[in-house]
Automatic annotation (TrEMBL):
Record-given protein name: SDR family oxidoreductase
Family of the protein in this entry: Belongs to the short-chain dehydrogenases/reductases (SDR) family.
Superkingdom of the source species: Bacteria
Entry-linked InterPro entries: NAD(P)-bd_dom_sf, Sc_DH/Rdtase_CS, SDR_fam
Organism for this UniProt entry: Archangium lansingense
Length: 273
């Protein structure tokens, strides 16, 4: 039985839950954090059937004190933590002139500052231990630039930059970083989606549903990346191809391809609405 320990924000559903189950099956001690107590209790019960050490903590990533309390619980009860997964996130879609600043502040506080708080709070514990590993869940949206998703793209791009920076900053302290950038996959992200466009909501939902890659597939890739101390986790081949095109093609050609694909996606969503 492994004595290794993992802490996962947004761990009661979606990708966070899949990560928790993957590590529980490997015998790790698994602590999930979420703001949905009902889902948290249900997931903890499932985890307890796989590992003798499963715990749920109510934790709002917009509150540094909640993450601080989680760090203290892990240090007091499990003697620390080996992997911290900053996974909690929400979605927002809409034209730049339509998205309110309140929505911008909402998504920044969760998607970006939630990850910042997780890294800020747990780095001192990792340094005291002499080791640790952050898994920061961003998105291919942070590497690409799909229209009508400016707030989501911007927060995920910031997580990319933060993670790249921390990989360099924390290396001498034996703290690893993995950056997860999936494309569309079946999850409950549309539950948190804020948008004034029914067509965008429909299109996103359809893209999530028809993805051949599941949350369990991505969780397995994360497990292996942490074992190998790999940085990039890019599970979708289409996403990897698009990122390669962005890096190699002239900007004008790449941008025209993105706009053409986006028009098709919006048209599909309108037809299905």
């Amino acid at each position: 039985m492994s004595e290794q320990r993992i802490f996962i924000t947004g761990g009661a559903s979606g990708l966070g839950q899949s990560i928790a189950l993957r590590y529980a099956r490997a015998g790790w001690r698994v602590c999930i954090a979420d703001v949905n107590d009902a889902r948290g209790a249900e997931t903890q019960k499932t985890l307890a059937s796989l590992t003798p050490h499963a715990h749920y903590l109510r934790c709002d990533v917009t509150r540094e004190e909640d993450l601080g309390a989680a760090s203290e619980w892990l240090a007091s009860n499990w003697g620390g933590v080996d992997v911290v997964v900053n996974n909690a996130g929400v979605a927002q879609a809409g034209a730049i002139e339509e998205v309110s600043l309140d929505d911008w502040q909402w998504i920044i506080d969760i998607n970006l500052l939630g990850v910042v708080r997780g890294c800020k709070v747990f780095t001192p514990l990792f340094k005291r231990q002499g080791h640790g590993h952050f898994v920061n869940v961003a998105s291919m949206a942070g590497l690409l630039d799909v229209p009508m998703m400016s707030s989501y793209n911007a927060t995920k791009a910031a997580v990319v930059s933060l993670s790249e920076t921390l990989q360099n900053e924390l290396a001498d302290d034996h703290i690893g970083v993995s950056l997860v950038c999936p494309s569309f996959f079946k999850t409950n992200l549309t539950e948190s989606l804020r948008t004034s466009s029914p067509g965008l909501r429909t299109a996103m939902g359809k893209l999530l549903e028809r993805s051949p890659i599941t949350a369990d597939d991505i969780a397995d890739r994360i497990f292996r990346a942490v074992e190998q101390r790999a940085f990039y986790v890019l599970p979708h081949s289409e996403g990897r191809q698009a990122w390669l095109m962005k890096r190699l093609l002239p900007r004008g050609l790449y941008a025209s391809l993105i706009r053409k694909r986006t028009r098709r996606m919006r048209s599909y969503g309108t037809q299905q609405a």
